TrEMBL record:
Protein name per the record: Phosphate transport system ATP-binding protein
Domain ABC transporter: 5-247
Alphabetical list of NCBIfam families matching this protein: 3a0107s01c2
Gene Ontology terms, MF aspect: ATP binding; ATP hydrolysis activity; phosphate transmembrane transporter activity
Gene Ontology annotations of biological process type: phosphate ion transmembrane transport
Keyword tags: ATP-binding, Nucleotide-binding, Translocase, Transport
Organism: Streptomyces griseomycini
Key word DNA-binding present: no
GO cellular component labels: membrane
InterPro entries: AAA+_ATPase (IPR003593), ABC_transporter-like_ATP-bd (IPR003439), ABC_transporter-like_CS (IPR017871), P-loop_NTPase (IPR027417), PstB-like (IPR005670)
PANTHER family assigned: ABC TRANSPORTER I FAMILY MEMBER 17
Length: 258
């Protein structure tokens, strides 16, 4: 099967600091891949190279190749804005646009991307909120501010906003780390549903979560602070958590460090 994402020889820098070195991996369509590893090993940095967000940071620079299907995201003439539409992102802290209504939060990306009739927007907003398992909770308050929702609802609102523009890939950077356990389970269930339509890459510091939600797990590590983070291994999640190939992975998942 064609790989949806195919990364080879990827380095990412902040100025002269090499944060991640020589990463190569593939991600299959309609799967969930979890990134785990100790803090500072470059999980977030790597995730942001997958939709050209890394270069938004001053000094942020990337070498290597990220193929999305047949297209090199770092090829000549590629528009980073259209990349970010194809590859959506959900962040650690729910970040709905605070002054906007629930409805407008979901419609925001669509309005940027083109002209829709009101009835079309209504349909997409409803579909996206249903897709994010939020519709029933907000259908009577679509015109109230998104910031009035609970943390877990806000995160599902951000997921609705991300899927409204129909990306192919969804990147999630510790999407549950600011949420209570019930909201966390709601997001985990949602990830299970979303993978039928999207390819998902999720960073998590919670190994139980990685084990619950992902098909594949990638373990990142760094030799020492100031050294670049590296991909140590990627394999089926079941295998990573039962019989990993590398001792450092075993040490990490059994809680011996990190
Ligand atoms: N904006 C930045 N400027 C400079 N260095 C950064 C920046 N963001 C992250 N780093 C550094 O890059 C390395 C990887 O960080 P990060 O990708 O956030 O790791 P993780 O998500 O695994 O905790 C760390 O050494 C971190 O200090
Ligand atoms: Mg991080």
């Amino acid at each position: 099967m064609a790989k949806r994402i195919d990364v080879s020889g990827l380095n990412a820098y902040y100025g002269s600091f090499l944060a991640i070195e020589d990463i190569s991996m593939t991600v299959e369509p309609r799967s969930v891949t979890a990134f785990i590893g100790p803090s500072g090993c470059g999980k977030s940095t790597f995730l942001r190279t997958l939709n050209r967000m890394h270069e938004v940071t001053p000094g942020g620079r990337v070498e290597g190749k990220v193929m999305l299907d047949d297209e090199n995201l770092y090829g000549a003439g590629i528009d980073p804005v259209s990349v970010r539409r194809e590859v959506g992102m959900v962040f650690q802290r729910p970040n709905p646009f605070p002054t906007m209504s629930v409805y407008d939060n979901v419609a925001a990306g669509l309005r940027l991307n083109g002209k829709y009739k009101k009835s079309e927007l209504d349909d997409i907003v409803e579909k996206s909120l249903r897709g994010a398992n939020l519709w029933n909770e907000v259908k009577d308050r679509l015109n109230k501010p998104g910031s009035g929702l609970s943390g877990g609802q806000q995160q599902r609102l951000c997921i609705a906003r991300a899927i409204a523009v129909e990306p192919n890939v969804l990147l999630m950077d510790e999407p549950c780390s600011a949420l209570d356990p019930i909201s966390t389970l709601a997001i985990e269930d949602l990830i299970g549903e979303l993978k039928e339509r999207f390819t998902i890459v999720i960073v998590t510091h919670n190994m139980q979560q990685a084990a619950r939600v992902s098909d594949r797990t990638a373990f990142f590590n760094l030799a020492a602070v100031g050294q670049p983070g590296k991909l140590i291994e990627i394999d089926d999640t079941e295998r990573i958590f039962s019989n990993p190939s590398v001792q450092a992975t075993e040490d990490y998942i059994s809680g011996r460090f990190g």
